[in-house]
Amino acid sequence: MINILYCGDQNIEDGLIISVLSLLKNVEEELNIIVLTLALSAEETGTKELCPVSERVIRYLDGRVKEQNPQNQVRLIDATKLFQKQMPAANMATRFTPCCMLRLYADQIPEIPDRILYLDNDVVCRRSPGGFYHQEMEAYEVAGALDYYGKWFFRSSPFHMDYLNSGVLLLNMKKIRQTSLFERCRTLCRDKKMFMPDQSAINKLAGAKKICHRKYNDQRRLHEDTVMQHFSTTFRFFPWIHTLTVKPWEVERVHSVRKLTEYDDLQEEYIRGEYL
């Protein structure tokens, strides 16, 4: 079995659909997919209301994964009360939505198993992640690939790159609960404003991080050996220095800007809108 975790409000639904479909295409093992969501008022966020992932989308995805294996499942868990109990006050008004920090509450949810693979909703699976998922983790809290840009600027030692991108993280929840890693991350996010708060907190406080190959979280471009492609924002230097953000559900831009047809079958099912 492979346990998968996604987190967010209704704004992750487009990416969630494509990401789950990509897992279904590449994973033969049983899939246990958990989606943490929340609902917050504009008063609570300081900007706008956040609505939870819809039950309609979860029903569609649960039915879809069961077509391949009746033991597969997609479950929605509302973590609103946990979030409200210890809100990341110092980071509620950053450019990163509060939902980015929702995974830091996973240790408080009994349904979250001892090992789970966290994925951002803009991560598309290209090959089976089984080798990454089943690796030895007894001594580690988290495992992931280096952040493509952050590895150069954020590191615990001048001579050692160890800053992980948090879009793909294998979580040893048993050890995380033992070390109180996420509890300490929540406290840090409550008290200190940070750039990319949840990613920064995990990197700063994790005592045992396992650095894995780039192919498990390819952030810059697709390679022949890519296992999971992360459609994160990148920098481009021609014809001028600028950022580039193209998400998997932006089908035309994936074709015209990223020049990718790799995921056409997944995007076609998404476009058909069978989940509506």
What is the strand and helix layout of this fold?
Blueprint lengths: L1 E6 L5 H14 L4 E7 L4 H4 L9 H14 L4 E6 L1 H6 L29 E5 L3 E3 L4 H4 L8 E4 L4 H4 L14 E5 H7 L1 H11 L5 H9 L3 E4 L15 E3 L3 E3 L5 E3 L6 H6 L7 H9 L4
Helix content: 25-40%
| Rg on CA atoms, Å | 18 Å
The count of β-strands is 11
Give average pLDDT, whole number. 92
The quaternary organization reads as single chain
| Order of helical and strand elements | EHEHHEHEEHEHEHHHEEEEHH
Q: What would you note in describing this structure?
A:
The chain is α/β, with parallel strands linked by helices and 276 residues long. It is built from eleven helices and eleven strands. The strands form three sheets. A seven-stranded mixed sheet has the order 3-2-1-4-7-6-8. Strands 5-9 form a two-stranded antiparallel sheet. The chain has a two-stranded antiparallel sheet with strand order 10-11. A hairpin with a 5-residue loop joins strand 10 and strand 11. Helix 1 (13-26) runs parallel beside helix 3. 41% of the residues are buried.
